[in-house]
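B., you asked whether I could sanity-check this one before it goes into the benchmark set. Here's the sequence:
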Amino acid sequence: MAPVGAPVEILLITGPAGVGKSTLCWEMGAVLAEAGIAHVAIESDELDRVFPKPGAEELAPLAPGARDVSQLNLPALWGTYRALGHNRLIMSGVMLHVGFDKSWILAAIPEARITVVRLRAGDAALLARLDRREAGAGRDTQVERSLRQAKRMADENGTGFIVVETDGRSPTELAGFVLGKAGWLPVS
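And here's what the prediction gave me:
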């Protein structure tokens, strides 16, 4: 575990739906565990997977100014992990508005240093991944949304991000690359 007061480091894994964020996070977790490096992994989708979703009015008595239940759940989870000695967090989500997303994450974990990793894939690879994952009535809507997200992210200025092209690369290769770039793995 980290020494008391060690800075918190967050790898924020972002990209369009279906690009492989969850798969990469699972693989990075396995690589870190194999190396004996303590870490936590949280998928942002799980922070607000509730029905009915509470709005600002319902959240106000719990946290004035909160707009999303994620703003309450992340600090609750992280507080436990931090008390257990953790200082590394892998967090994933689409994160279309990285500046906004970083602000609510930093409100929850003020002492954190966030490294943003933007995953990209070509349309053909993204469609193939979505075909393996999506089924049922929502498939076409999800494909449309993912392609829009990918286009928007491809057009943005990636300054300050680690941009990772995923086409033709295995999860193991990507995990080693990202963890190396972030300095989370010892140099061998």
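One thing to flag: The helical segments are 21-34, 56-59, 70-83, 98-108, 123-133, 139-155, 171-182. Otherwise nothing jumped out at me.
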